[in-house]
Design brief:
By secondary structure, this protein is of the alpha/beta class. It has one domain: Ribonuclease Z/Hydroxyacylglutathione hydrolase-like (Metallo-beta-lactamase, Chain A, 4-Layer Sandwich), CATH 3.60.15. The chain is 19% helix and 30% strand. A 6-stranded mixed β-sheet has the order 1-2-3-4-5-6. It has a 6-stranded mixed β-sheet with strand order 7-8-9-10-13-14. The longest helix has 11 residues, at 34-44. The chain is globular. Residues 12-192 form the Metallo-beta-lactamase domain. Keywords: Hydrolase, Metal-binding, Zinc. Its cofactor is Zn(2+). InterPro entries: MBL_Glyoxalase_II, Metallo-B-lactamas, RibonucZ/Hydroxyglut_hydro.
Amino acid sequence: MKWKQLPLGPLQTNGYILYNDNGSGVIIDPGGNDKQLLSWLKEKDITILAILLTHAHFDHIGAVDTVRTTFNAPVYLHKKEAHWLTDPQLNGSGLFQGIEPISTKKADHLISAEGPLEIGGIEFQIFETPGHSPGSVSFYLPEESIVFSGDVLFRGGVGRTDLPGGDEDTLINSIHNKMLSLPDETIVANGHGPLTTIGEEKETNPFINGFGW
């Protein structure tokens, strides 16, 4: 499997494209820049089989409908945010000046529990990691030693909790119980900023090693 990080949308949210040698794959959090994203996919001859959303904040969903329509690709989202794609107040785009309200069609598949998910030969383990938002999930690939964490855990930081449904204690519990239980060498491919590893965050992240809480 190969994967590519692409900064997308108004906040340059990290979107991730995972694909096999046959050119089929999935995209995680297509935040925007529809034309550039489709151009890159066409150039690489990649067919998107599914869209996986770590959560439904506006900066992670801007290109959802374009990708869905182009590839007839179903959208996966946690059931606790089932209504967020269609509601700018819930997905946050209606809360900030200068941000155009974003509304997309509903998700095709609602995630209701943790467990395995296989798409196009790519095998994920879904973790429920709420706190930044009530339906935040992380997609873990044990064979690749990488977790796509959305806005749960960053290099030197954690997700904000002041948006609808956010909760600080819940977020820290998710990080300690799910993220930090992964092997130290696990790459954390997050929603904003550079990659990191579980081991690095255990050592240096002030929000989770006892100094920030």
